[in-house]
Design goal:
Largest sheet: 22 strands, antiparallel, barrel
Number of strands: 52
Helix content: under 10%
Strand content: over 45%
Radius of gyration: 33 Å
Oligomer: single chain
C-alpha cells in the first residue's frame, strides 16, 4: 500500500510543534547522591513514569537532560530506601539516601513471579549475595553453607570438583532428596557449572506454600537463582582475581617406624608364643621411616579470574562475563585438578514501552582429573601402609625401573618375598604415592545453559503481563580412564600377562561419551493491580513443558603394548578379545499447568493460594497426573492500631501455611515389566507396577517475623512439620517367582519437623558500620512406615526401620574392656567356652542372657542426620577497610569411622595412630582401647566404638579488605586477604567431619586455604 504524503507532512509538523513546546518547558538537572557521608556511585536517577534516566558517577554526581518542572525524580540504589524528589524550579538537587536495613520493600522472586518481601507468607529465605561473594568457593552450592536456617550444605569430599549435597529441612525420602534449582526460570538438578560472580540473587523456598508452584519436583525444596543483568548507563568493567594455596590440616599422628615395630612386637606377644619375628627384624637396613600422609599431601593451589562488562541505555542493557577457576588439589603429582571456564551473555531490550525481549546464555567447560577420594581411596592406603616401607625402591634393586620406581609389595626381590614371614608381617596394601602417580582419569563436560524470553504488557495500565520463556540445558561429557600396569609381579593373573605387575593387570583404557538435552518451555500470564487504597491483588496462570533425552556410549580395550599418551586411544589396544562396548539412552517428559493468587488488604492481611498439576512420563498412564495445592496467610500485626504507639516495634508479622509437594525423581520406566531374551528364551527380569504413583510431601509451617528498633534488629522464627508418604521402595518377591529384580512400590512414610531461628542486626549510622547475622535450625527425622515385606532396609552398617531416623547406625554397644578372666566368665555366663580374653572389647548384653548374639544384642548406636545446624556471620567496614567472617557447624550427628576401625583396631599389621600407644596392657590400664593382637579382640564387630560424634564448628571464611578511592581512570580498587576452613573444633578423629558418606573409609579432606585477591572497577 502506498504511503500518503499529506499524512507524513501532518505527522512531522505535529511532532515538531510538540518538540518545541516540550523543549521550552524542559531543562537540564545536575545533582549529588550520598548516604550523608560518602557518595553513592552508580545510584540510579529516573524521571518517574518514563525511561529517561542516568546513573551517578564515582563521585556521586549526575546530570540529566530534558526534565520538566512537573517531573518527579526517583533515586534508587541497592541496599538503600528509594526516594522521590519533585523537580520544580531546582536546577541542582542533593539527595541523601538511607540504608534499608530490613529491605521490606525489596522485590523477591518466588516461583514464576515476584512479591514484596513484606508481603511474603511462606517460608522464603533471601540470601545476602554480597556475603556469599566472600566465600571464594568453586561450587555455588558451597557458598550457602551457614547462610540459611534449615539448609544443610555438605561437600561429599574435599577433592576439587567433587559434588556438593544440599538438604533443605532434612531428608524426606529414601531416594533422591536433592532440591530443585531454577536459574533464570530454567529448572536444573545441578548448578556446579555456574560462576558465583554471575549471581545476582538467591532465594530458597523451604515450605510447601512457597515451593508448590513447582509441584512434582519440589519435595526437596527449591533454590531460585537470577543472574546479573546490565544496567542503564555507560559501560562499566570489573576485574576480580585471586590466587592462593591450600593445605591439608588436622591430620592424625601416625606411628613412626620404631613405634610401629614396638606395637607389632606387642601384638605378636599377645597372640602367639615362641620367637617373635618382629624382634628379629629390628634394625633392618632396608627399613624406612615413612609418614605416608606427609608423602601423599602437598601444597595445593587455587586461582580465579573474573572479567565482567556491562552497560546499556534506555532501550538495551547488556552484560558479558568471562570466568576461569582452577584448583590443583593437595595430593601429589597434580592428578587431582579441577578447571572451569564460563562465558555468559545476558541481554535485554525494551522494544517499546510494552514489549521486552532478552536472553541469558552461559557456555561452560569443566575438566576434572579424578583420584580415588572416598571409599578405597588414596587416603585410606596412606593411613594403612607400614611406615617401615620406603616410598621408592633403591636404584640398585633388581626390580627397580625408571618407569616404576615405587615400592609395592613389602621388601620384594626378584625371587619373591624376602626370607621370613613378610606376607603376613607387613600387610600388602598398595603404595598410595604410586597410585597417585599412575592415575589417569579425566572427565570433561561442555555445557550450554540458558533461555530466551519475551514479555508483553497488556491493558491501559500495563498490569497484565504475558511472558514466554524457552530454555535449553545441553551438555556433552567425555570420560577417559587409562589404567596403567605397575607394581611387583606376584605370579598371578592370566598366563598371557606373565611378568606384569599386580596392579592394573593387564593395562586397559575405558572411554565413554554422552549427551543430555533438556528443553523447557513455559508461558505465564501475570496480573497485578491495586483496588482503591487498601486492596492489592495479583494472579498468575501458566503452563510448562519439559522434555529430556540422554544417551551414552562406551568402549574399553586392554593390553596396550605402548602406554605413552600418544597411544592411549582405543585403536592401539589389544586383540578383539580385549574389546568391550556398550550404549544406552533414556528420555522423560513433564507437562504442567499451574496457578497462583495473592490478596492483601490494607497491607496487613495477606492470603496466597497455589495449585500445580503435573503429568510425568515416569508413571503409568492411570497415575501420570499429580496435583499439588498450597495455601498461606499472613497478618502484619505491627500495623494494627493497638501497636502503633510501640516505638521499638517496627515490624511484626505472623505467618501460617499448608501445602503438598511431590517427587518424581525415580528411574525411568520403573513401572514397566522388564524382559530379556537369551539363547532364544524370554525371561522376566522385573515385574512392573502400573499403580506406581507420586511420592507426596505434606507440609505445615508457622512463622513469625519481627523487626525492632527501626528494623535494625530482625528476627524470624519458624516451625515446620514435613510428612512424606507413598515413598518408593524396592520390594523383593519370593524366590518361587524366580530370580527377578525388586519391584518398586509406594509404601514408606517419613516425618521431618523442627524449629528455625534467624537473627540479624545492622548498624550503619556511624563511620564504623557492622552487621551480625545468626541462624540455627533443629531437625527431628523419623521413619513412620515401611512395607510389611520390607520391615528393615539393611545397609553395611545401617538399618532403616520404623521409629528411627533414616539410615540409623546399627550394631553392638561397647561398654568397656574386659580387665580379667573373672569378668569375662561373669559377663558371658551363658556362653560355652567364650573366646574373649582380657583386654578384649566388652559389649553390652542387652537381654541379659550372658550371650553376645547378633539377634538379641544389637541396637541403634547413632544417626547420620544432624539434629542442629547453625551459622554465624559478621561484616564490618570502617573508612576504606572491611572485615568479615563466617562460622558454620552442625551438632547431634554421627559418622561411622571405618578409618579408625581399620587403623587402630584391625588385627592385621596395618599402621596405627598414636592413640594405640594407650592400648590395654594389663588390668585397669584402660577401659577404652583394647589390646593389640593378631586375633580378633572384638574389633571385627560393627559397634559403637566406631560411631563417632561428627559435630563440628568451622571458620568457613575470614576476609580483610582495603579499598582505594580517587584513582584516575579507576572507579574503585580493593585488595583483600581471605582464608577458608582455617579453624575447626570437633571430637571426630577422622580426617574431616564434613562428609556425605555414611561410612568414612578415609575421605579426601577439606583443605584450609589462604587467598590474596584484587578487585578493580572501571
Amino acid at each position: 500500500m502506498k504511503s500518503n504524503p499529506i499524512l507524513k507532512v501532518m505527522a512531522i509538523t505535529f511532532f515538531l510543534i510538540m518538540g518545541m513546546v516540550r523543549a521550552h518547558a524542559q531543562k537540564n538537572i545536575t545533582g549529588y547522591v550520598s548516604d550523608g557521608k560518602v557518595p553513592i556511585p552508580g545510584a540510579s536517577i529516573v524521571v518517574k513514569g518514563t525511561s529517561n534516566g542516568t546513573a551517578c558517577d564515582f563521585d556521586g554526581n549526575f546530570s540529566l537532560e530534558n526534565v520538566g518542572p512537573d517531573d518527579v525524580l526517583v533515586i534508587t540504589s541497592i541496599g538503600f530506601v528509594a526516594q522521590e524528589v519533585s523537580v520544580g524550579s531546582k536546577s541542582f538537587i542533593e539527595v541523601v539516601l538511607t540504608e534499608d536495613t530490613q529491605k521490606l520493600g525489596e522485590v523477591v522472586l518466588v516461583g514464576y513471579t515476584t512479591q514484596k518481601k513484606a508481603d511474603l507468607t511462606g517460608a522464603v529465605a533471601v540470601v545476602d549475595v554480597e556475603r556469599l561473594e566472600k566465600t571464594r568457593v568453586p561450587n555455588v552450592s558451597q557458598a550457602l553453607q551457614g547462610q540459611v536456617a534449615g539448609v544443610q550444605v555438605t561437600a561429599s569430599t574435599g577433592a576439587p570438583g567433587d559434588p556438593v549435597e544440599i538438604r533443605i529441612r532434612g531428608e524426606g525420602t529414601i531416594g533422591n532428596n536433592d532440591p530443585l534449582y531454577v536459574v533464570d526460570g530454567i529448572p536444573s538438578r545441578d548448578i556446579s557449572f555456574m560462576n558465583q560472580a554471575d549471581i545476582k540473587s538467591i532465594t530458597v523456598l523451604k515450605d510447601a506454600a512457597a515451593a508448590s508452584i513447582y509441584g512434582s519436583r519440589a519435595s526437596g525444596g527449591v533454590v531460585l537463582i537470577t543472574t546479573k543483568q546490565g544496567e542503564k548507563g555507560k559501560m562499566s568493567f570489573n576485574v576480580d582475581y585471586f590466587n592462593g594455596f591450600n593445605k591439608a590440616v588436622n591430620l592424625p599422628d601416625l606411628l613412626n617406624a620404631d613405634q610401629y615395630i614396638n606395637t607389632l612386637e606387642t601384638a605378636w606377644n599377645n597372640t602367639y608364643t615362641g620367637d617373635n619375628p618382629y624382634t628379629a627384624d629390628r634394625g633392618r637396613s632396608d627399613f624406612a621411616n615413612t609418614n605416608w600422609l606427609d608423602e601423599l599431601f602437598e601444597t595445593g593451589h587455587s586461582q580465579n579470574l573474573q572479567l565482567t562488562a556491562s552497560g546499556g541505555n534506555e532501550k538495551l542493557q547488556y552484560l558479558m562475563s568471562l570466568g576461569y577457576y582452577g584448583q590443583d588439589g593437595i595430593v601429589v603429582y597434580d592428578n587431582d585438578k579441577y578447571q572451569r571456564i564460563n562465558y555468559r551473555t545476558n541481554i535485554s531490550a525494551d522494544l517499546n514501552d510494552r514489549l521486552k525481549v532478552g536472553t541469558n546464555l552461559q557456555l561452560s567447560y569443566d575438566k576434572r582429573d579424578l583420584v580415588a577420594s572416598r571409599g578405597e581411596s588414596l587416603i585410606r592406603y596412606a593411613l594403612l601402609r607400614a611406615p617401615v616401607i620406603p616410598v621408592y625402591k633403591d636404584v640398585n634393586d633388581p626390580t627397580y625401573s625408571e618407569r616404576d620406581p615405587f615400592t609395592d609389595m613389602p621388601f620384594f626381590t626378584e625371587t619373591g618375598y624376602d626370607v621370613g614371614l613378610q606376607r603376613s608381617m607387613y600387610e600388602m596394601v598398595g603404595n598410595p604415592i604410586a597410585r597417585a602417580y599412575f592415575t589417569d582419569n579425566t572427565e570433561r563436560t561442555y555445557r550450554t545453559f540458558g533461555n530466551v524470553f519475551g514479555e508483553y504488557r497488556f491493558l491501559k495500565d500495563k498490569n497484565l503481563t504475558f511472558r514466554t520463556n524457552v530454555g535449553i540445558d545441553l551438555s556433552f561429557f567425555h570420560n577417559k580412564v587409562f589404567n596403567e600396569n605397575y607394581g611387583d609381579d606376584d605370579g598371578g593373573g592370566n598366563p598371557i600377562d606373565a611378568g606384569l605387575g599386580r596392579q592394573n593387570r593387564p593395562n586397559s583404557l575405558n572411554e565413554s561419551r554422552g549427551e543430555a538435552f533438556t528443553l523447557t518451555i513455559n508461558n505465564t500470564l501475570n496480573y497485578k493491580t491495586v483496588l482503591g487504597e487498601k486492596h492489592s491483588l495479583s494472579a498468575l496462570l501458566g503452563m510448562e513443558y519439559i522434555t529430556n533425552y540422554a544417551s551414552s556410549i562406551g568402549a574399553s580395550r586392554a593390553r596396550f603394548p605402548y602406554t605413552n599418551d600418544e597411544f592411549r586411544y582405543l585403536d592401539y589396544g589389544g586383540t578383539e578379545l580385549d574389546l568391550w562396548n556398550s550404549g544406552s539412552a533414556s528420555e522423560w517428559a513433564l507437562f504442567s499447568y499451574f496457578g497462583s493468587a495473592s490478596y492483601s488488604f490494607d497491607n496487613k492481611y495477606m492470603l496466597t493460594a497455589n495449585l500445580r498439576a503435573d503429568a510425568s512420563s515416569r508413571f503409568a498412564e492411570n497415575n501420570q497426573w499429580g496435583y499439588f495445592p498450597s495455601v498461606s496467610a499472613g497478618w502484619k500485626i505491627s500495623d494494627e492500631t493497638f501497636l502503633k504507639e510501640v516505638d521499638w516495634l517496627s515490624n511484626l508479622k505472623l505467618r501460617a501455611s499448608w501445602g503438598i509437594l511431590g517427587n518424581q525423581e525415580i528411574d525411568n520406566y520403573t513401572y514397566l515389566t522388564l524382559i530379556s531374551q537369551e539363547n532364544g528364551i524370554v525371561k522376566t527380569n522385573r515385574f512392573g507396577n502400573p499403580d506406581l504413583k507420586w511420592e507426596s510431601s505434606e507440609q505445615t509451617n508457622f512463622g513469625v517475623d519481627a523487626g525492632l528498633f527501626q528494623n535494625k534488629l530482625n528476627i524470624t522464627v519458624e516451625y515446620f512439620n514435613k510428612y512424606t508418604s507413598d515413598i518408593l521402595l524396592p520390594i523383593s518377591l519370593p524366590s518361587v517367582v524366580g530370580n527377578v529384580q525388586p519391584t518398586i512400590l509406594n509404601a514408606g512414610e517419613v516425618r521431618n519437623k523442627g524449629f528455625e531461628f534467624s537473627v540479624g542486626y545492622q548498624n550503619s549510622e556511624r563511620k564504623f558500620k557492622y552487621g551480625i547475622n545468626a541462624n540455627m535450625a533443629t531437625l527431628d527425622n523419623k521413619v513412620e512406615k515401611l512395607h510389611p515385606n520390607l520391615p528393615n532396609i539393611v545397609g553395611e552398617v545401617t538399618r532403616t526401620t520404623v521409629g528411627q531416623p533414616l539410615n540409623a547406625y546399627y550394631g553392638y554397644q561397647m561398654e568397656g574392656i574386659y580387665q580379667n578372666q573373672a569378668e569375662i566368665d561373669q559377663h558371658l555366663s551363658g556362653t560355652a567356652n567364650p573366646t574373649a580374653k582380657p583386654g578384649d572389647i566388652r559389649f553390652k548384653d542387652l537381654n541379659g542372657d550372658g550371650i553376645i548374639s547378633a539377634d538379641n544384642d544389637r541396637g541403634f548406636i547413632g544417626a547420620p542426620i544432624p539434629e542442629l545446624t547453625f551459622g554465624l556471620s559478621f561484616t564490618s567496614s570502617y573508612q576504606g577497610w572491611d572485615f568479615s567472617f563466617l562460622f558454620q557447624g552442625v551438632e547431634g550427628v554421627d559418622r561411622y569411622n571405618d578409618g579408625k576401625k581399620i587403623v587402630d583396631y584391625d588385627t592385621r599389621p596395618f599402621n596405627f595412630t598414636t592413640a594405640i600407644l594407650n592400648a590395654w596392657n594389663g588390668e585397669n590400664s584402660t577401659n577404652s582401647i583394647p589390646r593389640v593382637a593378631f586375633e580378633d579382640n572384638g574389633s571385627s564387630r560393627i559397634s559403637s566404638i566406631f560411631v563417632e560424634d561428627a559435630s563440628y564448628i568451622r571458620l568457613k571464611n575470614i576476609e580483610l579488605g582495603y579499598s582505594l578511592k580517587e584513582i584516575k581512570g579507576i572507579n574503585s580498587l580493593r585488595f583483600y586477604l581471605s582464608g577458608q576452613n582455617l579453624w575447626t573444633i570437633t571430637d571426630y578423629s577422622g580426617l574431616d567431619p564434613e562428609t556425605t558418606d555414611l561410612i568414612d573409609k578415609g575421605t579426601y579432606p577439606s583443605s584450609a586455604s589462604v587467598l590474596l585477591g584484587i578487585n578493580a572497577k572501571f
